[in-house]
Amino acid sequence: MYDPLVDSTPGRSQPHTPSYWVDTAGAAPPDDGPVQGNHEVDVAIIGGGYTGLSSAYHLAREHGIKAVVLEANQTAWGCSGRNGSFARISGGRVPLATLVEKYGRDTARAFFAEMQQALQTTRDLIDIGEIDCDKQPDGVFKVAIKPEHVAGLKREVEMYNGLLNYPARFVDAAGVQQVHAGAESYGALNLPDGFCMHPLKLAWGIQRLAREAGAKVHPGSPVTEWTSAAGGHRLVTPGGVVTARRVIVATNGYTSRKLNPVLTGRILPVHSQIIVTRPLTAEEKVNSLPGGDCMFDTRNLLFYYRRLPDDRILFGGRSAVNGRDAENPVHRQRLLDALCRKFPVLKGVQLDYNWGGWVAVTNNSLPHCYQVSGMQNVYTGGGYAGSGVSFSIQTGKRLAQMLAGDARPTPVPFLHEAPKPFPLQSFLRVGQRMAYAWYRFKDAE
Ligand SMILES: Cc1cc2nc3c(=O)[nH]c(=O)nc-3n(C[C@H](O)[C@H](O)[C@H](O)COP(=O)(O)OP(=O)(O)OC[C@H]3O[C@@H](n4cnc5c(N)ncnc54)[C@H](O)[C@@H]3O)c2cc1C
Questions:
Q1: Which CATH superfamily, name and number, covers 1-136+193-263+363-445?
Q2: CA 238–ligand 1 middle distance (angstroms)
Q3: Mean pLDDT value of segment 229-252
């Protein structure tokens, strides 16, 4: 499996990794084929996931700039075509209380408003493009796995209500059983906004919108070499050279160390894995997830899960530390064991799908969209820490605004600063392994 910390590029024209999403997405929309020959363009976008495709759409639709998207493999081959399918008010992974403590109440409020807008931008694109992405009714639950976690959830509810004036509520254990039967559910934080959908259909819908607006989308076009001079950026792909005046880097968790040294070391790719069961019987459904909401739990290494429209359960969480270990069946088994601990009725259930992908984590666990200093006219966005469906779409919109001349399109300072490089780069994964062991110990206590 491609490992961004080890391999030089994510390949060329690779098919999507086998998944439930690929099997149920239908036919891919038209694209512009791999780059052929040499081209001079105004804006090149490297990476064809939500960030890149949304940038291309917003540049064309709102600023009249027709960009060219260069994607190494199929569009949405990275996280955007293989995620857990929750579009919600999220971006990065920093608890509300920590945000307030570190950045103050005003910035925390402004960041929350940006995350709300991100979800709205996602809804708008689905509506404008009539994107048929199996969008489910809204409903998000953060479920307490232990009685001791209930007090923390109630404090979170108070912050949502008081600080953010947002109608989150606490649901007691009996109430939670309506949507989350089985074990490990002692109450939940309920957020009324946020929905499950089909991630690959969503990405392909944005691709269609971007092309209709005038952007070009080239799959099978990995950037294998990048040199910059006064006139612009020379991006070498196997089919030809694209010379661009301005560049958006939207490679996020799939960014290899070789793409450009200026970007190296600021994102840690962290593997997240998903299993999908066979369709459940009516009895299994009632005793596991009778509702169709987005669920995640209060673990440090949290699990996220939902019931799919054909009554399977999708269940995901953190897994391998490096690409070599990603196919190890131990990770699939760990997820299955966790699923069955939550829903004992599913003991022995058959799994029909199992896949994973690289989410992008920064040093402060927060996302970013900034102009890269030390390079001319280069912008980048990412670092969503596994919570980036809506925020990456929003970041695409913000990057388009920045390129069109608005240097700081949000009032959230940290969003527009480059994430600090991780210290002790060579030991990153050793540290990650130790952190996982500690969190697993704490979660099991
Ligand atoms: C298993 C999993 C579950 C997740 N679940 C959720 C969820 O439920 N909710 C949520 O909000 N978020 C979730 N996420 C995160 C979310 O999917 C991502 O934050 C989001 O899709 C990021 O989009 P992106 O466009 O920035 O990056 P990506 O979609 O990863 O796109 C980056 C692209 O860059 C391309 N690329 C890399 N190098 C080059 C190069 N040299 N030349 C050309 N192209 C290149 C790659 O091929 C890739 O297609 C999940 C992620 C994973 C992996």
A1: FAD/NAD(P)-binding domain (3.50.50.60)
A2: 22
A3: 96
